[in-house]
Amino acid sequence: MARSGAAPSTPDPTRADQAPGGPPAGGGFGGRLMRRKPVDRLVAEGGHGDGGELKRSLGMWQLTMISIGATLGTGIFVVLGEAVPEAGPAVVISFVIAGLTALFSALSYAELAGSIPVSGSSYSYTYATMGEFIAWLCGWCLILEYGVSVAAVAVGWGQYLNELLQGTIGHTIPDALANPPGEGGVVNVCALAVVLLAMAFLLRGARESARVNTVMVVVKIASLVLFCAVAFTGIRAGNFRPLMPLGMAGVSAAGATLFFSYIGFDAASTAGEEAKNPKRDMPRAIILSLLIVTVLYCLVALVAVGAMPWQQFGDADAALALILRQVTGQSVWAVLLAAGAVIAIASVVLTVLYGQTRILFSMSRDGLVPKIFSKVDPKSGTPRANTVIVSLFCGVLATLVPLGELANATSIGTLFAFALVNVAVIILRRTRPDLPRTFRVAFSPVTPAIGFLLCGWMMTSLGAETWKWFGIWMAGGLVLYFTYGMRRSQLAREEV
Q1: DSSP string, 366-387
Q2: N or C: which end of the chain has fewer CB within 10 A?
Q3: Which is more confident, 314 or 34?
Q4: 59 pLDDT exceeds 70?
């Protein structure tokens, strides 16, 4: 009780026990797991790292290009050849299903990005709504989503690089140096090269990286439009019959596989502390990028299965380039597409790697991972040590480790994080109805609830082996949290 005549204390938004929306610390073991970092504090700490601040230099179109760059590429250039044998010509429906699933979650991301404009993406959103333990699980899934997918995408880069080299100089990189172990290779030098190239751009700064990414995004969109224009002449109506040779189960399974293609639309939400006007621009960038990507995916898939019988996709590494060769009888079109694919996949590596570093930046600032990940270089305004460590880790992973089912587990990790974001919208509407929102999900809580159920449905469509690897990954995350993060988190130190 305050002394008579004393001025009432002013709440400090940087204190977890005083900021609006944050419960008092304590409560035993369960209380420590549920301790939340209030929204006001997350926003107040935005941009601040160890020794410097991130630079706000990104506009709405640059944020949109980051999301498109992180998304557009893998689904068409790499994963399409795996999904068509599962769904047949109905792979277009699989893309629509995966896109609708992503859209419901994208709406939730847009609302939270406009309300909590920070770099942690869904990790930060769950920290503010569901507590530290759930936030750690979400962050650990994001590390799987971004880190492993960087390696997986980099592995696919070598296929199109060889396609380009074969069409231009008549020589290719030996399989031992262009493929991962377990797929005919020994050391995947191509994968390491593209990761190191992305690292070099990121170290120059967010604005410089965004400019390079914008150029690459324009090139890969032009490449896909060129493919549609040329391959359209080879469409045969008979290639669409039967539409669902493997039934709706095949369409659903392909949709779950293709959800990997939509990983990255949330990349704009990892740039919240480097955007000029994050509350206005991030929601727009997230929705716009997803719509552009979905339209392109469906259009290219429709033309592809119309131009080549679906049974032939299973044996095609670079399916789109093969289609152009078959349709035109000339290699020049395939070479142009391969060049676009090389740039497209490099863009995915660049932007997804960017997102991974910013998520670790937020987790480090909260004390859940070592402080070196939140150390900012004053000159470039980027987390340099973070970028180097993450890039080398992803490069080695892509070069030496057979990813196998671990790469497929990224889809589960992404769906789990998306499901939590939908729940976070519902919780934040109840706990902070006064919070300014530049974008609001329509028909809440019904829309976020549908997004949550769709994510759960797609998770059940994935195989038992994929679930096994996801369980192993999550078990490792639990060990790290209880041995390191739980005791060293910033909120834990403040409790002491």
Answers
A1: TTSS-GGGGB--TTT-S-HHHH
A2: N
A3: 34
A4: yes
Residue 26 lies in a domain: no
The alpha-carbon radius of gyration of the chain (Å, integer) is 23
Closest CA to 364 of 489, 492, 185: 489
Residue 30 lies in a domain: no
Query: Which tens digits make up the pLDDT trace of 86-143?
Result: 888 999 999 998 888 889 999 999 999 989 988 888 999 999 999 999 999 999 999 8
pLDDT at 15: 44
For residue 252, give its domain range. Answer: 56-495
Tokens 């926003």, located at residue: 43
Instruction: Say which CATH number the domain at 471 has.
Output: 1.20.1740.10
Question: Binning pLDDT at 50, 70 and 90, where does residue 287 land?
Answer: very high
How many domains does the chain contain in total? 1
In a domain, 45, yes or no: no
Q: What is the 3-state secondary structure (H, E, C) of 61-111?
A: HHHHHHHHHHHCCHHHHHHHHHHHHHHHHHHHHHHHHHHHHHHHHHHHHHH
SS3 percent helix, strand, coil of the chain, rounded to 5, is: 75, 0, 25
CA distances from 92 to 158, 214, 296 (A): 26, 27, 11
Please check whether residue 209 lies inside any domain of the structure.
Answer: yes
pLDDT digits (tens, 9 = 90+) for 422-465: 999 999 999 999 888 899 999 989 999 999 998 888 788 777 88
Geometric angle at alpha carbon 193, from 189 and 195, rounded to 5°: 120
pTM across the whole model: 0.84
**8 A C-beta contact, residue 71 and residue 355:** no
Three-state SS string over 313-347 comes to HHHCCCHHHHHHHHHHCCCHHHHHHHHHHHHHHHH
**Which pLDDT does position 4 carry in this prediction?**
38
